[in-house]
Amino acid sequence: MTARLAVPKTYKLYIGGAFPRSESGRTYEVVTRKGDFLANAARASRKDARDAVVAARAAVSGWSGATAYNRGQVLYRIAELLEGRRAQFVDELRRGSGLTEAQANREVDTAIDVWVWYAGWADKYLQVTGNGNAVSGPYFNISTPEPTGVVAIVAPQGSASGDGGLLGLVSVVAPALVSGNTVVVIASEAAPLPAISLAEVLATSDVPGGVVNILTGSPAEIAPWLASHADVNALDLAGASDLDWVDLQVAAADTLKRVLPPEPGVPAPSVERIQFFTETKTVWHPKGII
Amino acid sequence: MTLEQPVALAPAERAVQLIGADLTEKSLKLHLDGLSGVDAVGLEARAAGLATRSIKTSSKAWALDTIIRLIDLTTLEGADTPGKVQSLVAKAMNPDPSDPTTPRVAAVCVYGDMVADAVAALGSAHAAGGRTGINVAAVATAFPSGRASLAVKLADTKDAVDAGADEIDMVIDRGAFLSGRYGIVFEQIVAVKEACRRRDGSYAHLKVILETGELNTYDNVRRASWLAILAGADFIKTSTGKVQPAATLPVTLLMLQVVNDWHRLTGEKIGVKPAGGIRSSKDAIRYLVTVAETVGEEWLQPHLFRFGASSLLNDVLLQRQKLTTGHYSGPDYVTID
Amino acid sequence: MSFLEYAPAPESKSILHLKKSYGLFIDGDFREGHGTPFTTISPADESPIAKIANANAADVDTAVVAARRAYDRVWSRMSGSDRGKYLFRIARLVQERTRELAVAESLDNGKPIKESRDVDVPLVAAWFFYYAGWADKLDHAGLGAAPRALGVAAQVIPWNFPLLMLAWKIAPALAAGNTVVLKPAETTPLSALVFAEILQQADLPPGVVNIVTGAGDTGSALVNHPDVDKVAFTGSTAVGRAIAKSTAGTAKKLTLELGGKAANIVFDDAPMDQAIEGIVNGIFFNQGHVCCAGSRLLVQENVHDEVIDRLKQRLSTLRLGDPLDKNTDIGAINSKAQLERIRTLSDIGEEEGADRWTADCVIPDKGFWFAPTIFTGVETSHRIAREEIFGPVLSVLTFRTPAEAIAKANNTPYGLSAGIWSDKGSRILGVADKLKAGVVWANTFNRFDPASPFGGYKESGYGREGGRHGLGAYLQSGWHAPASRQLPASRVEPRTSRVEPAASRVERAETARAPKKGSTR
Fold first, then answer.
1. Residue A41 is inside which H or E element, if any?
2. What are chain B's partners, defined as 3 or more CB pairs within 8 angstroms?
3. Which of B41, B216, B217 sits opposite A286 (nearest CB)?
4. Which terminus of chain B has fewer Cβ atoms in its 10 Å neighbourhood, N or C?
5. Where is this region: Disordered (chain C) (predicted)?
C-alpha cells in the first residue's frame, strides 16, 4: 500500500471573520527550524491592516455590548475548542517551532489554561478594578472600567522562553478581549501557523467576526501603520522589542493612544493587562427622596 | 383600565384657555403629569447659591422696609381674642413707635371669626380695596386641615368676606391631592374663588395654601402650584404655619419658578407667599434675593409677594434700628403685640 | 436704584501677606532662579502682584536632585503612617489659611472669590485629607501586595485651577511615597508659592516637594529631566502630545489630563429648571476655563426654543466683575492670550453662520473680560463645535433621538466628560454606558471630589486623578513581581500541576510580605 498523499492547508489572514489572502497577493515561506519548507503564509500589507481596523471597529459595539457573562462563556468556549484541537496545535508547534513533544504539550496546556483564566475574569474584573466612591454630597458615584475600543497588538515573536507562537499570542489577545475590546494582532512572524489555526478555532466559535483579526507577515512593515492609525485606541507592543518600538510609541502619541511597552518573553497573566485596556468611567447622579 | 365617563370640571378661565373647553379631571391630570420634574439636589443647590448673595448697605435699608411692607402680620391661635387682634392691628399700623418713618405691613392675617374685630380696629387704616392702608386677610376653608365638607368651606369663606376680609387664605385638600383626585382640589378652589365674590361683584383676593410640608415632594409642589393657578389663585402660598417644615427657600424658589413659567406663558403675574418659619431679617433678605433673581424685582410689591409671619417683624425692626443708630438694639426696644 | 445692585463685597486683600518677589522653592527654602524673573499680574485690572523667579534648566536640575535626595534618604524610608501625618497637617493648614489662599487665587487667576472660597480651596483641603489616609494603606489599593512608589514625580499644572491642580498632583504623589518637583502655570504661580509657605509650617522634610516657576521651557526641562520617574501633566492636548512623544521609550510613567469638548445632553423630559442651572454651571463656572466644561449643549429639538429662552433669562442675572467681590458670578479671563483665543474662535463662530447672543454686562475698563455668550444654530462641522474654546462660550446643537444624541456626543477626538439631563433612570444609565467620556454627570454637572476618579478617554489623555485610581498613577503595582511567581504554574512545572487559582497566588504574595508591614519600601 502506498503512503496517502497529504492535503496541505493554505494559511491566510483572518479579518472580519473571513479568511482573505493578503490584498497585496504576497506570501512568505514559513520554514522549520532546520529550514525545510512548511507552508506559504500571507504577508499582510498596510491595506490589510487598515481593513482589519475597520472590521475591529465595527465589532466593538456588539462585543462590548454583550453581557459580561456572555463574553465569559464565549471565551470559555474557545478553550474548549482549543482542547479539542490540541493534537493539531502540538503538531504545528513541533513542526513549525521545533519544540519537543513535551514542550509542545506544555505550551498548549498553558495556552488553554491562560485562556480559561482570562475567560473567568469577564464578569469579575469590573468588581475588582471599579468601585463606588464615597463623595462628600448627596450623590451616587460609581467608577467602572470600560473597554477602550480597538487594540492593536504585536504578539510575542518567539523567544528563549520556548514560546512556539501560540502561548504568546493567547497571552496578549485574551486579556484585551475580556473587557470587550476588539483586537488586531500581528502574529509571530517566524511561527505564524498556530495563529492561523487559532483563527480557525475563533471562526468556528461564538466570537463574532471582527472581534479578533489576525495578520501574518512582517511586524516591522505593518506595526507603524497600526501605531499611527487614528482609529486605534491602544497599542500593545509586547512582542515589539526587536522593532523600532520607540518610533511606534511616538507615532501612537499623535492620537494619545494607550501604549504598553515591549515585554521580554511571554507576558504573565494579570488583571493589570485587562485593566490597561480599559477606561475608568465615573458616573454621578444626585440622590434625593423628595 | 376601563374608559370611564369623563368627569367634567368647572370651566375656570385659565384652565380652559390652556387645556381646552372640554375640561375634565382626566385632561387636567394629563396636563399636570406632563410638567417637567424637579431634581431635589439641584433645586436645593440653587437655593443655597442664592442664599450667599450679600447686599449693599443702602440696599439693606430698602430691603428691611420692603420686608415690612410685604408682611402679613399673623395671629392664628385658638386663644385669639378681640383684644389680641386689636393689639396685632396696632402693631401693624405702627410697627415702631420710636420711628414714625417705619412703613406699615401689608395686611393682618386672622381667623375668619376675628375679621370683624380686625376691621373695627383698623378703622380708617383699613385698605378695603384701596391702594393705601392695611388689608385684612382671613384664613378659611376649615384651616388648617381643610377637613370639612365643601359647604362648610364655602360658608367659612363667605362669612369672612362678608365681615370685610380683603384676602382669603384657603387651604387645598391635601388628601385629595395625594390620592390623585386633582379634580376635587381644582373644583374646590374654583368654588372658593366664587365665594370670594362680594355683593358689589368684586372679589376678595384668593391665596391658595398648598401646605408643602404635607405634599412632601417637589414634584407635588410644582403640580399643586400649577393646579392652583389654573383654578384661579391670585397667590400661591406655601404653608399654614401649623405643619413642619413650613416655608423653605427651595420650596419658595420652586413656586417662584412656576410663577415665572406662568408669566412667560400668559403674561399674567401670580403672587407668592412663603409662610411659617421665616423669623430673621437675614432669612427674609434671602427670599427677596430669590424673588428678584427668579421673577424680577417687580415682584417685590405687596400684590405679588408676601411674607406670612409674626416674629419676623420685630427682628426686622431691630435691624432697622441698628441701621439708624449704628449700634445693636435689644428686644426691650421693640414692642410685643 | 436696583435692589439687585448687590454690595461690592470685596474680600479684603489685607489677609494676604504678599511679598514683593518670590523665589523658587527648592529643598525646603526659597531661592533665586537663574532665568529672568517675570511679573504675575491680576487679570482683573492688569496690575502687577509680585515678581516671580524663573527656573532655568540648571534650577530644574537642582530641584530634581533635591527631590531625589529626599526620596532616597527620607521619604522612601519613612513609614506610611508618618507620610500620612504630614499630609493631614497640610490639609489642616490649608483649612486654617483658606481665606488667604482664596484671595491669592482670585487675585492671580481672576476667578470669582465665591468659587475659590467655596469650591477650589475646600477641595484642596479635602484632597490632602483623602490621600493622607491612603499613605499607610497602599496594600489595599488593589495594586497587589506591597506596591512601590515610583521615585521623583515631575508635575506640570495649568492656570485654570492653580491650587486645586497642585493638590490633585501633590497629594496622591506624596501619599504613594514619591517626591515631587512641580511647575505651576506661568500666569498663576502665586497660590503655589503661598502653599510652599504652608509646607514650611508643616515642617515637611526639605526636598519632598519642590516648586519651580517659569514658562514652557521650564516645564520642558522638568518633564525631560533624565532622573524623573513619573510625569503628570494637566493642560492642552498639544502639549500633552509633545510630552507623550518626548517620554516615549523612557521608563517614565505618564499620566495626562488634557482638553475636552464635553457634550451636555438635555432630553425633553429633563428637570428643566435644574437643567438650566446645570448648563450655566457647566459652561460659565470659572469663566469656562474648565477642561471638562459642558461646552457643547445638545438639546432635544422639541425643547430647544424653551431651553434657550430660559437660559437667556437666567444668564441675564449673572454678575460679571471684580473677582474679589462675593457677589461676582463671572470673573476675569485669565490672560490676554486666552482672551484673544476666545475672541478669535467666537468670531469664527459668527463667520460660520451660528447665531451669537451675549449677555448684557458692563465690561470693566481694565483687565481681560468676556461676557457670557451663546451660539445657537451650531452645526457639528463648525469649529466652535469641535475646538476647545476654554472660555464662557456655549455652542448649542440639537438632536432628535437618544441615538443621535449619543452619536453627536461621541463625535469628537476628546472624551473627558459629558452631561445627561433626563428624569428617566433607564435612559440615563443607558446613555451613560454609551458615552465615551471618563466622567459622566447625570442631572448635575462640574462636581468634583477627591474620592471620585477623574480623567479622559481618547485625546483627553490617560490615567485618572482622584480616588483609588488616582493613587495607582503614582505606584508601581505589586503585580509586577518576579515573572516566575506570576505565571501559571504549568509554564515552569510539569503539566500535572495546572494553573493555580489567582486568589491563592494573591494570598501567598500577601503572606510573603506580611512581616514587612510598616517597614520601608
1. strand A37-42
2. A, C
3. B41
4. N
5. 484-521
Alpha carbons C108 and C225: distance in angstroms, whole number: 29
The amino acid that residue A257 corresponds to is K
Taking Cα atoms as reference points, which of B102, B104, B158, B98 lies closest to residue B134? B104
CA distance C65 to chain A (A): 27
Determine contact: B217 vs chain A, CB below 8 A.
Answer: yes
Closest residue to C4, CB basis, from B43, B264, B297: B297
Decide if A139 and B40 are in contact by the 8 Å CB cutoff.
no
- The model's pTM is 0.91
The answer for C 146-175 residues in CB contact with A (under 8 A) is none
Per-residue pLDDT 10s for chain C (521 aa) are 466 667 666 777 777 888 999 999 999 999 999 999 999 999 999 999 999 999 999 999 999 999 999 999 999 999 999 999 999 999 999 999 999 999 999 999 999 999 999 999 999 999 999 999 999 999 999 888 889 999 999 999 999 999 999 999 999 999 999 999 999 999 999 999 999 999 999 999 999 999 999 999 999 999 999 999 999 999 999 999 999 999 999 999 999 999 999 999 999 999 999 999 999 999 999 999 999 999 999 999 999 999 999 999 999 999 999 999 999 999 999 999 999 999 999 999 999 999 999 999 899 999 999 999 999 999 999 999 999 999 999 999 999 999 999 999 999 999 999 999 999 999 999 999 999 999 999 999 999 999 999 999 999 999 999 999 999 999 998 765 433 333 333 333 333 333 333 333 333 333 333 333 333 33
Distance from CA of A138 to the nearest CA of B (A): 7
Each residue's pLDDT tens digit, B227-280: 999 999 999 999 999 999 999 999 999 999 999 999 999 999 999 999 999 999
Q: What is the pLDDT of residue C498?
A: 35
Chain A, window 179-238: residues with a beta carbon less than 8 angstroms from a chain B beta carbon: none
Contact list in C for residue A110 (CB cut-off 8 A) is: 488, 490-491, 499
Q: Give C442's contacts in chain A (Cβ within 8 Å).
A: 283-285
Contact C273 B38 (CB under 8 A): yes
Instruction: Name the phi and psi angles at C21, rounded to 5.
Output: -145, 155
A residues 97-156 closer than 8 Å to B (CB): 137-139
Strands C148-149 and C475-476 turn out to be antiparallel
Residue C248: which of A117, A250, A266 has the nearest Cβ?
Answer: A250
The shortest CB-CB distance from C244 to any of A148, A253, A266 is to: A253
Name every chain A residue with its beta carbon within 8 A of the beta carbon of B217. Answer: 290
How many CB atoms neighbour CB B6 within 10 A?
12
Task: List the single residue in B with minimal CA-CA distance to A290.
Answer: B217
Classify C94 as helix, strand or coil: helix
Chain C partners within 8 Å of A249 (Cβ): 248-249
Whether the predicted interface score ipTM is above 0.95 = no
Distance from CA of B229 to the nearest CA of A (A): 22
The runs of H, that is alpha helices, within C71-120 are 80-96, 98-109, 113-115
Other CB atoms within 10 A of residue C363 CB: 11
pLDDT in tens, A46-95: 999 999 999 999 999 999 999 999 999 999 999 999 999 999 999 999 98
- Cβ neighbours for C159, distance < 8 A, ≥ 6 positions apart: C109, C184, C185, C186, C187, C188, C289, C334, C335
* Cell numbers linked to C334: 485669565
Helices assigned H by DSSP within C247-317: 272-284, 304-315
Enumerate domains of chain A plus CATH numbers.
27-128+147-280 (3.40.605.10)
E strand or H helix at A175: helix A167-178
C-alpha–C-alpha distance, residues C224 and C218, integer Å: 10
Spatial neighbors of A229 by CB under 8 A, at least 6 apart, are A49, A50, A53, A152
